[in-house]
Amino acid sequence: MSTYGNLFRVTTYGESHCASVGAIIDGCPPGLTLSADDIQLQLNRRRPGQSDLTTPRNEKDRVLLQSGLEHDVTLGTPIALLVKNEDQRPHDYSETDLYPRPSHADYTYLEKYGVKASSGGGRSSARETIGRVAAGAIAEKYLKQAYGIEIVAFVSSVGKVHIPFSVQRPSQDDEDDEQVEDALSEEFRHLLSTVTREQVDQHPTRCPHLETAEKMTQRIIRAKDNLDSIGGTVTCVIRNVPSGLGEPVFDKFEATLGHAMLSIPATKAFEIGSGFRGTEVPGSKHNDPFVLKPDGSGRLGTKTNWSGGVQGGITNGEDIYFRIGFKSPATISQAQATAQYDGTPGSLAARGRHDPCVVPRAVPIVEAMASIVVMDQLLIQNARKTAAALLPPITTLPKTMVMPGKAQTEQNGTA
Ligand SMILES: Cc1cc2nc3c(=O)[nH]c(=O)nc-3n(C[C@H](O)[C@H](O)[C@H](O)COP(=O)(O)O)c2cc1C
Q1: Residue 106 CB–ligand 1 contact under 6 Å
Q2: How do beta strands 300-302 and 290-292 pair?
Q3: What's the pLDDT at 83?
Q4: Residues with active-site annotation
Q5: From ligand 1's centre to the CA of 104, what distance in Å?
Q6: What percentage of the chain's residues is helix, strand, coil (to nearest 5)?
Q7: Does the keyword Lipid biosynthesis apply (predicted)?
Q8: What gap in Å lies between CA 191 and CA 154, rounded to an integer?
Q9: Which of 272, 300, 302, 276 is nearest to 287 (CA)?
Q10: Which of 42, 57, 110, 125 to mutate to test the pocket of ligand 1 (most atoms within 8 A of CB)?
Q11: Ligand 1: centre distance to CA 366 (Å)
């Protein structure tokens, strides 16, 4: 369906070639200072036509706030926002009246609904993600102000061009118990803990490792010149998230994050923490030992963070980091042997304006979905803590049931 979230609820609407796209956001706390500029910043990073590496569709994507705030302060009521579709060219798609585009959503939408938008990707188009990015910008503003939470995504690979120290060294030897550092190097972990949006935006590929970024550019241009496309990965880090977020068992933090990420068009893979690479390292090297946090809080932290900030489906206060795989876009101008809707074999060379690689534009979408997930989980956990804090303290519990060094009232109290 088109609504995501429990207490911070985001409903997006719109198709690629209709009058407008947008979102209704319900559950935003009242009293948040918010202007269209806060939202526009991220929409500008998502919009098409930013460089030669993206689709030339020329959309300004100016956000129009319709409700839910006055004098740049949120009222706690639903926020409606819209962005007009201005540069539609439905005739670019006439050949797709006959052909479902291979690996696009034309065939499955028609199979499912029995009717589909007459041009473009309709609801499956990345235009839909405008509503997500706008909603994410609102969540992010709250998270930053209330908790100092930082969310930064960046392009970590395009085709086979990876940020070099992000890749596992190949070892076919099963007897060789690799160090976990081989799976995710010191340099890459340093990048995760320090990378900023300014660094990410230094290069049109949105890869903060500039040497790799140049190679990525060449790879995307090669795909474009060949009338083809290429995929890639986006890595994202979320810093300063409080411990305790996530709703086991079905709404574990990483499950909701994976759900949100895999709902972005063109996604094919999601991994958190050491991910698939961690599976090749024994527990003795992969476990994250506990240490007293050096910040004087008296709390436990972990020495390493192969868990990616989530254990048992609950955040542990460490940085949350994850990676998403985006496929090579389906719409290519190179002729492909395929079949028409009626089964007649033929050849499709798609016209229209398309992204040769989606990852540079996917970066703000990933950040938006991450913001929405954290926001929703925070509101849920805060509601639980507030409810628990109203109860009289229990003084009869065995020691093993309570956090050492903490009075029970404090433990049940709000953060
Ligand atoms: C930012 C962004 C831009 C995209 N641009 C295109 C595009 O130009 N051409 C295309 O075929 N798909 C593009 N896609 C992907 C399609 O929307 C998606 O592949 C299609 O709806 C099929 O869905 P699926 O790949 O999730 O199965 C884009 C995706 C994103 C996130």
Answers
A1: no
A2: antiparallel
A3: 96
A4: 17, 104, 355
A5: 7
A6: 35, 20, 45
A7: no
A8: 10
A9: 302
A10: 125
A11: 14
